[in-house]
Fold this protein.
Amino acid sequence: MPPDTILEVRGVGKRFGGLVALDGVSFQVERGSIFSVIGPNGAGKTTLFSCLVGSQRPTSGSIRFKGKEIAGLRNDQVVARGVVRTHQVVRPFRDMTVTENVSVGALFGTHQRRGADARARVAAVLERAGLAARAQVLARTLTIGELKRLEIARALATEPEVLCLDEVMGGLNPSEIQGAMQLIRDIRKSGITVLMIEHHVHAVLGVSDRVMVLNFGKTIAEGEPQRALRDPAVVAAYLGDDAEGVPG
């Protein structure tokens, strides 16, 4: 593993009975980069994230974080090592406040903070995520844009080195998408490596260092965003007419 590689995936496969969800997926992610995974619905993107964070066990292959194997570890073990994800369908504790939701991440994250230490961490995360003014409201009262930021805040509270974002821009309006893009850039500037599943092609172009495209569980392109999204296989399988908006 090259010294600047924080995450290395080799030949990862995942089967559900006779269904092949992932078929020999391999890639490397450089420390401090933003790496996006795109593809049609059912391509295997969310299954890949589930394997990375220990929510599902790969059928085959290797996942190495900072040179150490994490494939097959439980989700809590992976989070404790510094890899965490958000969910496409937001999963807040709806009858808890925003602060209480984010506190869960601080309490059970890499440092398992307690007391004033945990409160300070939560306050800092809420400020970064733009939720400080909503700290004491119940999660069930938040807008979809605020709920997406709550997902990110709760993940950030675990103090990850790698943050996996699963369609955090889904359902957002254009202004909220711009805000989410800036938040992702700020997260990267803080030293956190970001993996991102996203359907908004222009957002992918706007923040990503590299892009991998999945289709039917296989990688069909990988590389710099403009080049990967201009690949004929990607245009045929995923982008179609949307490819006209991709810079040459």
Notes: Residues 90-159 form one domain. Residues 80 and 110 are 4 Å apart (CA to CA). Residues 174-189 form the longest helix (16 residues). The chain has two domains: 1-82+162-248, 90-159.
